[in-house]
C-alpha cells in the first residue's frame, strides 16, 4: 500500500511541474526560472516512477495483471 501512495504522490508532483511550466510558457515570465527546469523535473519524476514500478514488480510488492483483457 505504501508503494501505491508514493506513486500517487509522485504523479501529483509531476502534474504540478507540468502546470508550472505551462504557466511560465503562457505568461512568458522568466523571473521564476526557465521552463526547462520544470519539464526536466517532470521527466525525472516519470523515470523514477518507472524504476519504482519495476523494482516493486521484481521484488513482489505489486503483481501485474496476468491477462490484460
- C-alpha termini separation: 24 Å
Fraction of helical residues: over 70%
Q: Point out poorly predicted stretches.
A: none
Strand content: under 5%
**Major sheet size, sense and barrel closure:** none
What overall form do the CA principal axes indicate? elongated
**Would you tell me the structural class of the helices and strands?**
mainly alpha
Q: What's the number of extended β-strand segments?
A: 0
Number of self-contained structural domains: 1
Overall pLDDT score: 88
| Count of DSSP-assigned helices | 2
Radius of gyration: 16 Å
Order of helices and strands: HH
Produce the secondary structure layout.
Elements: H1 2-27, H2 35-59
Helix pairs in contact: 1-2
Task: Write up what this structure looks like.
With 69 residues, the protein is mostly helical. The protein has helices at residues 2-27, 35-59. The chain has one domain (2-59). The protein is elongated. The mean pLDDT is 88.
Describe, in short, the structure shown:
Keywords: Membrane, Transmembrane, Transmembrane helix. The protein has two helices and no strands. Helix content is 74%, strand content 0%.
Question: Which properties best describe this structure?
Answer:
about 70 residues; mainly alpha; about 75% helix; about 0% strand; membrane
